[in-house]
Amino acid sequence: MTRRRAMITFTFIVAALLAACGGHAQAAQCGSSPAGFEAWKREFGEEARSKGVGGTAIAALMQTNYASATIAADRGQRSFSLSLDQFLAKRGAVTIVARGRQLKQSQAAMFASIEQRYGVPPGPLIAIWGMESGFGSQRGNQHMLSSIATLAYDCRRPEFFTEQLYAALKLIDRGVLSGSTRGSMHGEVGQTQFMPKNILAYGTGNLDVAANALASTANFLRANGWKAGAGYQPGEPNFVAIEAWNAAGVYQKAIALMGRQIDGGGSAAER
After folding, report:
1. Planar angle of CA 90, 96, 102, nearest 5 degrees
2. What would the 3-class secondary structure string for the chain be?
3. pLDDT at 9 over 90
4. 35 phi and psi angles, rounded to 5 deg
5. Rounded CA gap, 17 and 11, in Å?
6. How far is CA 17 from CA 3, 7, 14, 50, in A?
7. Per-residue pLDDT for 30 more than 80?
8. How does pLDDT run across 167-184, given as a tens digit for each residue?
9. Vertex 94, ends 90 and 96: CA angle to 5°?
10. Which residues on neighbouring strands pair with residue 31, listed in sequence order?
11. Each residue of 197-228: pLDDT tens digit?
12. Which end of the chain is more exposed for a tag (fewer CB within 10 A), N or C?
């Protein structure tokens, strides 16, 4: 009996070790230079295939290149360390507010429809639109999948971008995005710069179309705590939804301030 128990224990330990080793062997290893990117792609592609990602998306992944510009941008995000006044000046807040007020009037029917459906007023949506892409004029010209794959491979934040990469591959399989889709440095796409996971969760159509992008943004805010009619300045109920949109405190305050100014709560120079 004792010998049998020992054999069972030994077998269990061996099986556990083999499982652990097998799991380690399957995990694509992160890196901090272009040198390991091609090997990582092959390993990740096999993992993705085993999880049900289709051939179209796998083929697109194999065509990606190491995005050096994305890595440089990821290492150099200094604007989020500025003061609020410095950040507003750098991002052109006065121009965004002035243009935003015009758009609120000229696109009144669109914004009324979005507010009726999602409870989000024009101000914060327009502020996000202006901040993210200059009202659609600066949507980025980077190879979206290469940017996200590079960041998933990079050792700085692999967990976050691995999730984004799987979402991007799903969207390619579904035909929502393609292997040639262009976006910004971190893989954001569309007029309000959605990451792939958020497209899956909140997207409401082609995000290169302003109405769809703004509705998707309102959908995101509502899903993250937005309450119709409540305030959205720091300390007010809806500020939590703005916090969910971007983790940088100075960005959050800028959106809240510009949104209030666009909605009619003060001049563009107000603090």
Report:
1. 165
2. CHHHHHHHHHHHHHHHHHHHHHHHHHCCCCECCHHHHHHHHHHHHHHHHHCCCCHHHHHHHHCCCCCHHHHHHHHCCCHHHCCHHHHHHHHCHHHHHHHHHHHHHHCHHHHHHHHHHHCCCHHHHHHHHHHHHCCCCCCCCEEHHHHHHHHHHECCCHHHHHHHHHHHHHHHHHCCCCCCCEECCCCCECCCCECHHHHHHHCCCCCCCHHHHHHHHHHHHHHCCCCCCCCCCCCCCCHHHHHHHCCCHHHHHHHHHHHHHHCCCCCCCCC
3. no
4. -55, -40
5. 10
6. 21, 15, 5, 22
7. yes
8. 999 999 999 999 999 999
9. 90
10. 154
11. 999 999 999 999 999 999 999 999 999 999 99
12. N
pLDDT digits (tens, 9 = 90+) for 145-166: 999 999 999 999 999 999 999 9
* Distance set, CA 48 to CA 41, 42, 113, 120 (Å): 10, 10, 40, 37
Single-letter amino acid code for the residue at 166: Y
